[in-house]
Amino acid sequence: MSGGLAIVTGAAAGMGLALARRLAADGAQVVLTDVDDEAGRAAAAGIEGARYAHADMTERGDVERLLADADGLRVLVNNAGGWIGDAQFPDAPFEDWSRALDLNLRGPMLATQLAIAPMRSAGGGVVVNVASSAGNEDTPYASPEYGAAKAGLIRFTTALGDLDGVRVNCIVPNWILTERAEAELAAMTPEERADAPGTIPLEVVCNAVANLIADESARGRVVVLEPSG
Q: How many separate domains does the chain show?
């Protein structure tokens, strides 16, 4: 990375924070974004040379402000995502499932679009989209809007590939072993835990993203991450 700017969205905790730490360790000047300002500032304070920027990826103005101040941008990790609200499609109101599409698909699309110019000015760059196995399966799923958005993010990646100096790639992880996942596992009964899917260590995810950044032949590549064993 040698001093280049890297933006990681949704980086106040969990996988986003782990990715920010890894990119900083690899030499990047990291900007962490989130909507949880207290956690985001604390996270950035724990990473040498990092800074925090508030950005709600469902809000066009936030995304535009984030990328307007991106001189030297070399890496964008579109990590922010998740379910919206308590109810899911078809019970969820239009505003909730539409916002899920904004967070998980339209936000990354806009951020990618706006990242192209500063990346080209910096000599090239890499976008890594974080999708989910929910978008790569053909079985029933509890949040159809989330699965549909992640499926769209995968196809968005493969459709772009190489944008004249800006490489676009994607990881598709299954259940990642974050603190939240650890808490969910701890709350399960032994029987539920035995039936739960395996988890993917954060280090595996970070390595996959770092490899896509480093590998100049990676264009439109989709890396599926499944639990081992």
A: 1
- String of DSSP letters for 148-209: HHHHHHHHHHHHHSB-SSEEEEEEEESSB--HHHHHHHHHS-HHHHHHSPP-B-HHHHHHHH
Q: What is the CATH number of the domain that holds 164?
A: 3.40.50.720
How are beta strands 222-225 and 166-173 bridged, if at all?
parallel
Nearest to 67 by CA among 104, 119, 28, 102: 119
Helix 107-121 vs helix 60-68: crossing angle, to nearest 10: 10
Q: How many Cβ atoms sit within 10 Å of the Cβ of residue 229? A: 3
Residue 6: closest CA among 92, 82, 74: 74
Q: What is the pLDDT of residues 56-83, one digit of tens each?
A: 999 999 999 999 989 999 999 999 999 8
- Is 146 annotated as catalytic? yes
pLDDT tens digits for range 118-139: 999 999 999 999 999 889 988 9
Sign of CA dihedral 98, 104, 105, 109: positive
Q: Determine which one of 52, 83, 146, 156 is catalytic.
A: 146
In a domain, 229, yes or no: no
CA distance 15 to 117: 27
